[in-house]
Amino acid sequence: MNFTKEQLTRIPLLIACLIILSWLVIPLGPIPFTMQVFGVFLIALWRPVKEVFWTFTLYTLLGLIGLPIFAGGSGGIQSLLSPSFGFVIGFIISGTLIAILKQKGFHLLVAGSIGLIVLYIIGLIYMLCILQWVLHAPMSVIQGLKVAVLPFILPDAVKLLLAYVIVKRLNQLEL
């Protein structure tokens, strides 16, 4: 895989931004409120598919090897057992999907909305599985929606709109 010098510089900077946004946390139960989703939107709506994929993949790998870069400064292989880790996995998939949809000509808000739905689905399924099979604290899908999706819809919509406005401005500034 060939990367330009600019990409080799930009990807670590994007990861650093995502790390900073992940440290801004308001605990709300098994799924904390963070600014990570804003970072996902910003990066995925702004950068090309390859950069988006590698930014989120490397972010995830760095966290899994032990760097304290996930929500609230957590990290390490034990993060796989966190009910919220499905959202981290979802960053790779939904972020890449958003970038692909953007590349195919979808409106940025539509691409972001589809990506957000995919993120919620992945995060919800992962959370329910961890709660059921690892923590032995089963939760119904309806309860899961109430905990991991519904409280976040409005804040995430605002994050999407904010990222959209910023990306539109960034795109005007680029040569």
From TrEMBL:
Protein's membrane topology: Multi-pass membrane protein
Stated name of the protein: Biotin transporter
InterPro entries named in the record: BioY
Listed transmembrane segments: 12-45, 52-71, 83-101, 108-135, 147-167
Molecular functions per Gene Ontology: biotin transmembrane transporter activity
A cellular component annotation (GO) from this entry: plasma membrane
Transmembrane found in the keyword field: yes
Pfam families hit by this protein: BioY
Biological source species: Dolosicoccus paucivorans
UniProt-annotated location(s): Cell membrane
Keywords per UniProt: Cell membrane, Membrane, Transmembrane, Transmembrane helix, Transport
Sequence similarity: Belongs to the BioY family.
